[in-house]
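User
New here, explain this?
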Amino acid sequence: MMSETISGGHLVAKALKAEGVDVIYTLCGGHIIDIYDGCVDEGIEVIDVRHEQVAAHAADGYARITGKPGCAVVTAGPGTTDAVTGVANAFRAESPMLLIGGQGALSQHKMGSLQDLPHVDMMTPITKFAATVPSTERVADIVSMAFRECYHGAPGPSFLEIPRDVLDAKVPLEKARIPEPGRYRASTRQQGDPAAIERLADLLAHSEKPCILLGSQVWTCRATDAAIDFVRALNVPAYMNGSGRGTLPPGDPHHFQLSRRYAFTEADLIIIVGTPFDFRMGYGKRLSPGATVVQIDLDYRTVGKNRDIDLGIVGDAGLILAAAAQAASGRVGDVVGKRKAWLDELRAVETQAYEKRLPRQHSDAQPIDPYRLVHEINEFLTEDTIYIGDGGDIVTFSGQVVQPKSPGHWMDPGPLGTLGVGMAFAMAAKQARRDKEVLCLFGDGAFSLTGWDFETMVRFDLPFIGVIGNNSSMNQIRYGQAAKYGEDRGRVGNTLGDIRYGEFAKLLGGYGEEVRDPADIRPALERARESGKPSLINVWVDPEVYAPGTMNQTMYK
């Protein structure tokens, strides 16, 4: 009696299924098609895109939305190099995903086979794990190993190349190691050093002016409830960045946004959760040197990097915040009530900044003031709208104004600052959460990079609302050039054509409009929502208006 056999591609699919992956993002190639055959048998959806960068970004986006690792599958050589940007973005953004790349047959190793490149050498610096699968028997085993490494410390991407003959070969089923679901990965949730938790509780008990920054790891750890309980029980004003946006809804008494610089200057205790001291934080220099600084992070290497701290705690944000709140509850006494004056002080700063900007948000100017556009978008969002920002100057505007109304409803590239993530993130968000509305704000430069995958959205019936803030320029760079070299050289290498992207959407089977009057923005958004199609609302914004962050060039400091 002959034993049952299984191919490498089917072993990949079984390993993906064991990890809970229900979709792969891919662009086809002869090296990888046996994985497709396995995915069909395992009930895993195959979404084929028009550029491998989109496949990798979509795997990143899928991980952010679902909490499960994403997976992209690309062919060898240029297929894998096209995906490098998506992997690099996931690496800096701490997003767990697996990229599987094809490779020439082992039997042709170093012979110059089609699309042969040293993929593992190229991927090693931007992944948590990169390897070649050496034999068919080990395919599922090494896929599970790659997923395990995605969750070592702070999450991140892994890469595997699978030679064509390893992937296509069949081996007896009993000889293949196939790890069982739930039995090859341990819990990564660490509560942190108990002594450090006690010290944090004491700091909270004696602080008159504390504040907390809730960063992306609050969402990564699904620590929303713990973070809300912490700030409310201890009466601590909260600021949010990255995927941490939306932890508290707009209007919550502990939700602050526009007074962050003031708080970081005046606070006596600053708690930084899940955010490194990178360029977004001025490498830690924006925090008052007189404040007590506490940093909580999943990755030991991040704590205390670029700036000295008074207390560092490594572990899961939710467990640490819950433990600290419980430890502090019996010793804070009257200090919680006394913090009302501190919150009132911050609210006054917040209100002043908001009112100063309000005339711009209601501007009737033509071309349209970008503040008016992002204001209209913010007013349009529902509790079920996932907001995605993909661009430079226009997204810098939105970061000041747009406030997601629910946790996990904000997506941006992260610290790599990658343009072109928007279409892929919208694809992943809508595919994973069809019950949600998805709205993506693009710069026209950012949209141009990966915009052809609008057709993929149409093909797979993934409706979303796309808005392009169109100034026919790469305006964030343009401002810096003009400031540095003069206006006569301010248009070198950064000026785009006047493209009617609403017509582009129609060409590809979606819904599209052109908007030049600010009064038409909201009606156009409503029509896009009602169309039930992938849509592009092309809004012509003033190219001579720049975001404050652009004018301060804070992204480079």
Notes: The chain has three domains: 5-175, 194-350, 363-552. The mean pLDDT is 95. The domain at 5-175 is CATH 3.40.50.970 (Rossmann fold).
